[in-house]
Here is the input.
Amino acid sequence: MKQTVLIVEDDTLLAEVYHQSLKAEGIRSVVAKDFFEALAKFKPRQHALIVLDIMLGQKNGFELLKTLRRQPGGDRFSVMIVTGLNTDELNMNKELMVGLNIVGIYTKSQFSIAQFVNLVKLYSGQK
Amino acid sequence: MLFDYDYFNFILSELVGRIASDQLIIEDALGQSKTKTKAPRLLKILVKRNKINIDLLSQLLFISRQIGDFSARTANLVEAIALAESSFQGVTVRIRTDRVKPLVDVMGEVRAISSIIRIILDIIILEDLHSKDLSIGLRRRGDYVTVRIAGSKALSTNQFLKDVVDFVDKLIKTYGGSIRFVNYQGQRVVFIRMQLSNQIPLLYNK
Here is the structure.
């Protein structure tokens, strides 16, 4: 079964940009716009990587990740955080990330789509 | 009013990040013919969103300079709305004033009120980037006037837009007003309630 990427992003336009960019490179992805949609769409056997936004509304990305990690097969996937939070705000949330096995944290305003695609390839083992 | 500068700075930081992020995507797409041909629709929407975000940023910066100057002034609401809608590109904004007298004076400063209305128009367009025709209706009641903005779809507002709505709500409360964002059968309808200026003596001499 071909591995897919789960994109959790509440900005639907940005999620569409990620999805289209990955599709252009032959990488399959699924988009979820909030905590509950992500829980419903999460399939531990299919998803090699989760691209996760932090600010998702009522329940944030860390809470989602904790929930997913507790599920059967929840230790199999890699997580790449792509957020609008700046470095200071991320540092304030440092303790929330402990034990969640996050492979990379990136600020949206500091990397291009080409870099995003390369990182997804790297972390999902498709490079 | 106690202005929450931390909250304001958080919104500004998030907004600037969004503008920078969209700009990077746009430049990337323009530089790569493959992306350009595959998703021109997305690129067009991103450019529009960035324009609206930049307008939102300039309005927020303008309104931040007005904080602390919320004295007992009066503003002509029709004039404030006309100022707010005059520079929108690609979106037509119609004003219906048939239910009020031509002169509706409310509490506040005309540029500040116009800026608040423009922030609300920005939020509505950011929620539904395909909206083309918004209408603003005014209805005068006893001691207040209701501004009703409609014409776009109620799609799910993301956390950032919710934060901006909360911020504007706090601003408008300074003038004794309030804002309601309503989802009416899939349509986004915004109600802004503002105190008529004849209420100033009552509010300031309590």
Remarks:
- Chain B touches chain A through 28 residues (CB under 8 Å).
- Chain B is about 50% helix and 20% strand.
- Residues 5-31 of chain B form the longest helix (27 residues).
- Chain B has one domain: 5-204.
